[in-house]
Design brief:
- The protein has two domains: about 55 residues, Multidrug-efflux Transporter Regulator, Chain: A, Domain 2; about 200 residues, P-loop containing nucleotide triphosphate hydrolases (Rossmann fold).
- A hairpin with a 5-residue loop joins strand 2 and strand 3.
- The chain is α/β, with parallel strands linked by helices.
- The strands form two sheets. Strands 6-7-5-8-4-9-10 form a seven-stranded mixed sheet, with helices on both faces.
- The longest helix has 28 residues.
- Helix content is about 45%, strand content about 15%.
Length: about 300
Amino acid sequence: MLEDLNRGHQATFRSALANQLARPTRESLFPPDATKQMRKFTSGEAAALLGVNDSYLRKLHLDGKGPSPETTAGNRRLYSVQDLHDLRQLLEKTARKPGDYLPGRREGDHLQIIGVMNFKGGSGKTTTAAHLAQRLALTGYRVLAIDLDPQASMTALHGVQPEFDLPDGGTLYDAIRYDDPAPIQAVIRKTYIPGLDLIPGNLELMEFEHETPRALAQGNAGLFFFRVREALAQVDADYDVVVIDCPPQLGFLTMSALSAATGVLVTIHPEMLDVMSMSQFLRMTADPDGRDRRQAAPTCRMTGCATC
C-alpha cells in the first residue's frame, strides 16, 4: 500500500514538474495569440522559386498583373508566400506547356510517398523531412507532411505545440488505430505555407506500438503494415507528395510507413558509427528471411542518402 502511495506521489510530481517546465517555454516562445508566419521573399528569391527572370516579375507588377508586392523605402519589392502561390496560378494559365509553374501530378501519375528514416537518432532526419516538405510546397507541389515520430519535433517546427495544441489526439494514430479509426481528413491541418498540410504527432503515437502486439496476439491486426497506406488512400487525389518523418527505430510505425512509401530517404552523418548504423538499418529492412517486410513494401525503392 505504501508502494502504491509513493508511486502515486511520484506520478503527480512528474506531471507537475513537466507542466511547470513547459508553461514558461510555451508562454515566452508562443503567446496565446501567436501564429507562425513565413518571412517575405525578395524579388530575386521570388523569381528563382518561380523559375522566371526578376525583370519579368517587375513587368508583371508595373502592368498591374498578379498580386501587388510590398514595396520598401528603398523601392525593393517583397513577396509573401501567398503572393508566390497566386503568381504560380497566374503564370500557369499562359505557360507553354502544363506543369511549367504548377509541377504537380498529371493523369496517370501516382502519389509519391517519401519516408525519411534512419535507425539512429540525431542524424538530421526531422530537419531534412521538414525542409524537403517546405521546399516542395514552395516550388508548387501539393504536399502533406506527416510527423510519425512521438517526439513531435517536426510538429513543433510548424508552430504546433503537441503538449498544448493536441490535448485530445489529432495525430495519425487516430486514423490507423485498430478500434474505430477516424477519417484521415479529421487530423490534417493547414500550415503557414500554402500547399503544405500537416498531420502532427505527439506521444499518443506510441499507442500503436503497444496495441499492435496485442492485436497480433488476438488475431485482430490483419496486415498491420498496410494501415498507413490504407489511411493515405483516402486523400490520394488531394496531394502530389507525402513526406513522412519516421521514428528513429524499426518499430511497427516505421514498418507501416515503409509499406506506404514509394521511396526512402536515409539521413546520416559522414562518420563510421553512423554508416554502420545505416548498414544495419538497410540490412533489417531487406532481410532475405523477412518475408513480411518484402510483402509490406513491394514497390518501395531507395531514393537516396543525405549526409547532414
